[in-house]
Design a protein that fits this description.
20% strand, globular, binds 5'-O-[(R)-(carboxyoxy)(hydroxy)phosphoryl]adenosine, binds zinc ion, 5-stranded mixed sheet, 378 residues
Length: 378
């Protein structure tokens, strides 16, 4: 890791930039190397959710254009306008040591906006550009919690659940990952969003569905738990979405069907308590599968801790059920999760994963040889 020369300041300041989907985010982290103290100096997130909600999902072109408008504004608020422009005018050095930026996976045009911003800063200030895998960023979101850092002993098993990914990953060391299982079709977050859309809930459906589920009966509807008994550690969620659609076609009580889709892209209008029961039943089916497979993986690989990360880790039922199951099946294994507000996409997790990259002391490629990679794998 690059170190400042004075003994007092064995610290590094790293900027993190995230634009892979529908959140523009910039963070400035300060890490003191000798005592591993980490401070989030600045962290700004500009969500595009209200913009995309009008269309019932993310529109990539609009996402990219909105990132263009937001990223400079957030950088300016994070670093300060005069500091941002100084290098071009006077050859200033900037108040950070490295720039971490999401390289992929994500939407091609959206990723490129943040990546080009990162490259520009690296060029203008003469700082290293650290390309970050978005999935590694989600994993690092748990490391941002001081108590989790104290329990950070390898190997750690991750349940990574987001809108685009559902993976069980074993972290053997910083930068050393083994994917134990992944979804064969839809991601868990995608399943939350698509079933919520069928019920007429706004985009993104996950948080709305989980709120309504609180008042519903999770046993009201008998929904499938796809692949729960399959010996592999893989997942499949597309069948669950189909089962919900078929259920809505069959249910007559308080479910009204229309011949064409309404403006939220659904042809069902669900009324009364039945919507709470449907939400609770869908959530229970998704959570059951995620918990069961994670415990199966934990018993197989014997980690020191299990971490749940990614947007779906915001789901209170997932966290409480996983914690409970873990306590029962592997009582010595610690349970880790990100802090509130850092479950979904953010710049702080990208800066943290940038630190992980620097900690490995690997030679970084020059910024001019790097580009966004929409299909990047772990
Ligand atoms: O990690 P993230 O911000 O973006 C991706 O990398 O995909 O995750 C977004 C996903 C969405 O599918 C959203 O519905 C889901 O996280 N999500 C939730 C909850 N909060 C966010 N799913 C279930 N329950 C929640 N409370
Ligand atoms: Zn994400």
């Amino acid at each position: 890791m690059p170190r400042k020369s004075s003994a007092k300041s064995k610290e590094i300041k790293i900027l993190g930039i995230e634009t892979s989907c529908d959140e523009t985010s910039v963070a400035l982290l300060q890490f003191t190397i000798n005592n591993e103290q980490l401070t989030i100096k600045k962290h700004l997130i500009a969500t595009q959710i209200p913009i995309h909600a009008r269309y019932g999902g993310v529109v990539p072109e609009i996402a990219a254009r909105t990132h263009v408008a937001e990223v400079v504004s957030l950088l300016e608020k994070t670093v300060g306008w005069s500091k941002l422009t100084t290098p071009l005018i006077k050859g200033g050095r900037g108040d950070f040591d490295a720039v971490a930026v999401t390289q992929g996976p994500g939407l091609a045009t959206a990723l490129r906006v943040g990546f080009e911003a990162g490259k520009t800063l690296a060029w203008a200030y003469g700082k290293p550009l650290v390309p970050v895998n978005h999935l590694e960023g989600h994993m690092a979101s748990a490391w941002l919690v001081p108590a989790n850092r104290r329990n950070w002993k390898f190997p750690i098993l991750f349940l990574l659940v987001s809108g685009g990914h559902t993976e069980l990953v074993l972290m053997k060391d910083f930068g050393d990952y083994k994917v134990l299982g992944r979804t064969r079709d839809d991601a868990a977050g995608e399943c939350f969003d698509k079933t919520a859309k069928l019920l007429g809930l706004p985009y993104p459906g996950g948080p709305h569905l989980s709120k309504l589920a609180v008042n519903g009966n999770p046993k009201a509807f008998d929904l499938p738990r796809p692949m729960i008994n399959d010996p592999s550690l893989d997942f499949s969620f597309s069948g669950l979405k189909t089962a919900v659609r078929q259920l809505l076609e069959r249910t007559t009580y308080n479910v009204q069907r229309t011949t064409s889709e309404n403006k939220r892209g659904t042809k069902y209008v669900v009324r009364g308590k039945v919507i709470d029961d449907l939400c609770a039943s869908i959530q229970a089916a998704i959570v059951d599968v995620l918990v069961s497979k994670t415990i199966k993986a934990a018993l197989k690989v014997n980690p020191t801790a299990v971490a749940v990360v990614g947007g779906v880790s915001a789901n209170p039922m997932l966290k409480s059920e996983l914690k409970k199951a873990l306590r029962k099946a592997c009582p010595k294994v610690k349970f880790l999760a990100p802090a509130k507000g850092l479950y979904t996409d953010n710049g702080a997790m990208i800066a943290a994963a940038g630190l992980w990259n620097l900690m490995q002391n690997k030679k970084l490629p020059a910024w001019r040889n790097l580009d966004a990679e929409p299909d990047l794998d772990l």
